[in-house]
Amino acid sequence: MSDVRIGVFICHCGKNIAGVINVPEVTEYAKTLPNVVYAEHNLFTCSADGLSSITRKIGEYKLSRVIVAACTPRTHEPLFRTACEAAGLNKYLFEFVNIRDQCSWVHMQEPEKATGKAKDLVRMGIAKARLLEPLEDVEIGVTPACLVIGGGVAGMSAALNLANQGFEIYLVERDKELGGLLLNLNRLFTSDSKAEEVIVPLTEKVKNHQNIKVHTSTEVKGVAGFIGNFDVTLDQKGEEKKIKVGTIIVATGAEVLKPVDQYGYGDKSNVITQLELEERLNNGVGDEQNIVMINCVGARIPERQYCSRICCMVAIKNAVLIKENDPRAKVWVLHRDLMTYGTEFEKYYQKAMEKGVRFIRYSLDKLPEIVGNNKVKAVKVYHQLMGKEIVLPCDMLVLTTPLIPHEDNQDISRMLRVSLGEHGFFLEAHLKLQPVEFATDSIYVCGCARWPASVPETISQAYAASAKAAIPLRRGYIRSEGITASVDEDKCSGCGICVLLCPYNAIESQSKDGKKLAHITTAQCKGCGTCGAACPSGAISMNHFRDEEILAQVEALVI
Amino acid sequence: MTLEDIIKETKTYYCLECGKCSSICPISRHNPSYSPRLMLEKALNGFEGDLINDQELFSCLSCYNCLLRCPADVDYPLFMQKVRALASAQGKYGVPAHSGTLQSLMRLMSNPAIEQRRLEWLSDEYRISEKADILFFVGCAPYFESVLDFKTGALDIAKDSLKILNALGIEPMVLADEKCCGHDLLWTGDVKTFRKLAEHNARIIKESGAKKIIFSCPEGYRTFKFDYPHYVDLDCELQHITEFLAENMGKGKLNFKEAKKKVTYQDPCRLGRHLGVYEQPRKLIEAIPGIELTEMEHIRDESICCGTSAWTNCDAYSKQIRTERLLEAKATGAEMLITACPKCQIHFKCAMVSKGEERGPDVEMDVMDIVNLVASALGDNGSE
Amino acid sequence: MKKSGFEPKILAFCCNWCSYAGADLAGTSRIQYAPNVRVIRVMCSGRIDPTFILRAFQVGVDGVLILGCHPGDCHYIDGNYKTARRIHMLKKMLSQLGIEDDRLRLDWVSAAEGKRFASIINDMTERIRALGPFVR
Amino acid sequence: MAVNNSVLIIGGGIAGIQSAIDLANMGFQVCLVEKSPSIGGRMAQLDKTFPTNDCAMCILAPKMIEAGRHANIKLLTYSEVLAVDGEVGNFKVSIKKKARSVDEKKCTGCGVCVEKCPWKVNNEFDLNLGQRKAIYFAFPQTVPKLPVIDREHCAYFLKGKCRACEKFCEAGAIKYDQEDEIIEVEAKAIIVAAGFDLYDPTPLREYGYGRIQNVITAMEYERLSSASGPTAGELKRPSDGKIASDIAFIQCVGSRDVRSNRYCSSVCCMYGTKEAILAYEHQPGTKSTIFYIDLRAVGKRFQEYIQRAKDEYNVTYIRSRPGNIELNHHTQNPIIWYEDTTTGETKSLEVELVILCQALIPPRDIQEMASILSIELDEYGFVKTPDGLSHPVDTTRVGILACGCVHSPKDIPDSVVQASAAAARAAEILSGGT
Q1: Considering only alpha carbons, which residue of chain C is nearest residue A483?
Q2: For labelling, which of A166, A348, B291, D363 has a CA lying 20 to 30 Å from the CA of B47?
């Protein structure tokens, strides 16, 4: 440690610090501490002259560590790091000591004690600084191609957007046709335009785009490699194909629940789902005069608690289409809450009311009942808001069922090492601010694979996912801070505790010359240090927060 | 007109079933089981029978509170008017007040054979013309005076209206064969008779050549303005006397003598919420020197109804409503409650005439029509 | 064994994203609290190795505070849960060692809870003051 | 400043910030224009966010700092767009940068000036529930960390004396004579992320807002509930500072109503529920009643959130839209009149505090903005999308995109999604596609 040369810069922050803490005294004290070869105090260390002074002194005094005692690292650390780099000092050899936000500002009545605390904090900072090691930010190259899994409106929109930005796209669809769920739909709310008016032109653009390689009847069989560099194995009807991509977008969509054994579905001929109704409406409606729709069949129940977001609109839209086709027809929508959120949906709901569609609220404790043997003749519903039972004549009973996740979401999540949420939809990195990202970099999600969504919402998410994917693709690399964990392979016992603990799946057990070892994909490590804390054999060190560094701080607390 | 037609015309299909109407309905407030929303539900779900046979179908005051607040744009008062027509077609008229005397009177009136002598009260201290641009529509005041067993003061409204108009140098026409405007019949569903009356009035008014009609009764005014156009065509300017006076006070020779009084003012539903006349009456009251106007807690479009309308379903709840309103008036410290509708005056006075524990606390307060107030304040040179 | 004029030395580990930010907010809001605590910043409370805590007591620190994000808020998904488990176990061990339970405290402070941070510090300081110095 | 290959973003709320960061990270030059003194927008005013109860500032601040520091992002706060010429590929935009009366280069953000300023003014960030100085930071975590002199209330600008801030500023950053600047910016594409304003419930007189002290708006509640708000997070009701333990929330105030806005504001059912949960967390045992029409909980984990509110946080939901609120003159408690729509009975409920879940409305200056940008608005005054189905973030003018609540009310995740979507569309346009 003798060769370590530490420079200490203490900030007055005007009167913010100097008004309470005796800054000169602290500066003098710092000078007395081992390895400190220089110390000064400035009115504002973050000001232009403050920063240039740091850079200058590093040269003059051949400083190998720099400490600034000032406001807080959360806002100013990057600034001072740049000042160090300007003088050719590795930015990880800088240490920040917080003597304003956590000292002068909170002990204004006790200047002596505040000054004492400041000394302790500076001493602790210096203790850590002695042990600091230079680190490099990690840069991993990114293969300039993107794999989009799922050829529905989500996948195609994402693919097209990225392709138009000039990137190479592999679009993989397991069915023989592109289009996904929309292929089975008639008209789309709220414009009532035909589904094919959306899907056909989109499919054409995708098929004819030079940057997009479409693989239909194809499934993703395996994904190896790590972020930015994936080796993907595709399986096209038994025929394997290997591709290399840098980013992956999961757009596998969802499916509509079949309400087996509910309200006579499956055994009564005139009971169908909204999805089946779409087909009928597509081929010109029948002459049913009394149509009853029941919403939330299989949704918002204890077994499946969630609301599938779009079903109310699906029902209302189909009800409107029936009324427009035959105004004399009677359509009742039995619901539990009408989820026509926002401007457009609420307006569409009003349109339905104008057309004469009637809405009846039922509650979970008194479900509607069907009347009739091989056909449903009537539906009995307890009208919650009238407090009485109503019998509705019924020629056709339409059940509105939720979107549910695909069974094989499991396989994909395992292959990509991304998580699923409680209901089996894919789990985003952060519900509020990272809705289309996974905790793992360079893999993204959009559309109904994530959560039920309308067509415009799906397209927005698709674009959002391609925006995220475009970042590493454009840069050509992914950079992450040098503050990551590393394994000392001699110490590692290969117990695998760290593998289980890592929230980012950055650690995996690899066997190296017969010995099981923890291997950290630095690019994937976010530097939380959970692994380091748990490693029983002290093999993992969390750089910049290494045991020695923290212990040195601890020991320096008490003289 | 079928129930479905009514639903369309009144935009009942927009109902969000939110119940806001009920929670601001003066009837529901005192009779918790009365729910305008439920009436609409019955219609929307095809329970026409229940709707028509519902005793409370005739409870609605058509006070317009719900209409002004409904978030879904449903015209409940009109819905009531129309559904009551369906009901009356099946002989349902609700519970007529004063054993239906007034309704019979109106129906009789519609008989062309009848020759009214309804201008007997018109002594020569009032000046009217055979031909004039302005017509004063007297309304049913003269009849009320004789039908009801307590001093309504209704007739004085007619008299004082003329007195004031004369004071302004106006000698209006008054029609000897004017008939009931039909308001009460229309609102109890007797469209047939209403049409007869409307046609009669329209005819004689056209013949009279009147250009402008002045009303002292907001019900007549409302009926001529909003309902007649659907049944007859009559092209006249219409005004409530307070609007007319507020307009002409300045120019005319209306000068008032000092009248020391603290008064408060009741916005009648029809003049206020229906026709939007809030300012003119106040302007008029404040024009009288010495008169101090102190407002009640609920005024203008939040004003509280006098508790009954169209002489039907005048029950304990009606009584509670008007007693409450009188207490609110009293609370202002005013000596006198001024209103601008003969019906309001009658109902408030009635509330004070018939007392008794079960009808809530007794209230004593002078009630007077704005027209009487203005007339009483006229200086001598006023009516020269 | 309350000693007059005894000023406890307390060590606090704060995670970078929530509790450290909360401590800063106490500063920006000028909330005054006891000057007995020295903060060591780590990226995540999940980083905190029981050794750190034991070493602190070893060198004569009177009390140790572990402050992380509220459950569910962890910037690193669930680091704070892991900490909770670890500290729970450690506390058992300390009690076996006869070290008073109050000397080690785990708590949650969000980046918006400057006030909460201050009151935890004050409370901790008072408890340790009551316990007296840690002398072994 | 004339930058090529750049995107101009109007609005520095979470949507604008997200678009900016995404584009900047893609390597494009971005100019982010915000009319208030700091970025952060509405989210900065919120206490916590549903359904995770993440504290809003904890998750927002890092993004604000990132945007503030990013080499590819030029921040223009306290600035307004005056005119836009040209077309997609080369828009010419002139922006007014209002005078802060503070030298950005010299100011270190230490805040001594604010401390020393003797003049207290109502703080609009706290909806005037609290006070700030005449020279002030919009809120503690502002980006950039620069104070502003509120010239309407500064004694020096009013009376020509004081100069306290100047005297104590050791950095010598106070510039009373600073003037508005006009800045010309070139942009290939523009993203409108102007956000929303909040409906003022005063016109709905039946609810007594402004007349009954203990009837407040949801945003006022957010500030009262926020640890860094005017009451340091204590739910003191306005009339007497009593901590309210019996609260009612009224949904659809200014929403789903022909007399104000007929659309649904999308987020009120959820934020109402969140605020009820927070009330309980602040003071366990607190009772909340939420009046609603349809309980619109369509997002991920929303239904579970509602369930938890019922099971664990003493929240009751009543399906009804109250008709009016009266005042109990003795207790200062609001009395809510409503119909229990399941029984048809008209009832009243007396509580200690009523929170009106106010609607989200288009920014009050949207008309002006629309004419400057020559884009069309929909019937409600939100930005119109020509093909809402296939092009959800486009506007009626090629090269101008829109995201977030300026399109229609939506929650934070949906806004963030649209923000990134707009960034992707802009990138597409900048790459020569359309």
Answers
A1: C43
A2: A348
